[in-house]
Amino acid sequence: MSDTIDVIETNVQFLTAEEAVKHIPEVPTMMVGGFGFAGMPRYLSQAVIHEDSIHDITLICNSLGTISVLNDLFVQNRIKKVIGSFFSTNKELVKAYREGLVDIDLLPQGTFTEAIRLGGAGIPAFYTPTAAGTDLGRGKETRIYNGREHILEQSLYADVAVIKAHKADKAGNLVYRKAARNFNPIMATAAKLTIVEVDEIVEIGELDPDSIVTPFIFVDIVVKKEEE
């Protein structure tokens, strides 16, 4: 067995945050990883805020927490819709919703996760018993399976996923650390364009293959985090 490592050729680009967000469509459906601050791509999120051409965003994220880096987007009225699970503690979003400036689609967290996973797998919709018979299931198609009511949920797929990982190698393979393992890996598979913020970029072969969660095939742009 050879001890040499074959050179891997990929189309992954290594850009600055400012360069990376120029690739986001002006009116995007955008996934952002993390649960509040935990595992959120905060450095890239700041770059999105500073890119004034991006507007009328449909934002897909699990939770914004009490205070989010993205709050300025609500203040600037640049988000038209939010899809996720837990938003009631974010005052800027609640204020925008009450003023009729933003729509909210709430999904149970497990349904939200599965909708992203299946979006990445190319499956457009699925039935689930979660939320059947509740306000969250109102108006959705239903069927009975095994004597239990299920509702039809649409899978989620985005123009761009903005995610956070711990390290990337120079091929674009990703490893995650702690809370960043939450929604970031599945979002990487469920978008036309995946932009990832990392703490460190290493040489090919330095990452333990068993630790790689997201292979380079799902990654388009890597941005190394600088001091915020």
Kindly report the spatial arrangement of strands forming the biggest sheet. Answer: 1-14-12-9-2-3-4-5
Q: Please, how many helices?
A: 6
Largest sheet: 8 strands, parallel
CATH hierarchy: architecture? 3-Layer(aba) Sandwich
CATH class: Alpha Beta
Regarding quaternary structure, what we see is single chain
Structural class: alpha/beta
Query: Care to count the β-strands?
Result: 14
The geometry reads as globular
What is the CATH topology descriptor? Answer: Glutaconate Coenzyme A-transferase
How many distinct folded domains? Answer: 1
Strand content: 25-35%
Rg, Cα atoms, Å: 18 Å
CA-CA gap between termini: 45 Å
- Listing every helix as H and every strand as E from the N terminus to the C terminus, the arrangement reads EHEHEHEHEHEEEEEEHEEE
GO molecular function, one term: transferase activity
Keywords: Transferase
Protein name: CoA transferase subunit A
Organism: Bacillus seohaeanensis
Q: Would you give an account of this structure?
A:
Keywords: Transferase. GO terms for molecular function: transferase activity. This is CoA transferase subunit A. The protein has one domain (26-129, 155-224): Glutaconate Coenzyme A-transferase (3-Layer(aba) Sandwich). The chain has an eight-stranded parallel sheet, with helices on both faces. Helix 4 (91-98) links the parallel strand 4 (79-84) and strand 5 (103-106). The protein has 228 residues and is of the alpha/beta class. The chain is built from six helices and 14 strands. The protein has helices at residues 17-21, 42-50, 71-75, 91-98, 109-121, 184-189, and strands at residues 13-14, 29-32, 57-60, 79-84, 103-106, 125-128, 142-145, 148-154, 158-164, 167-169, 174-175, 191-198, 200-202, 221-224.
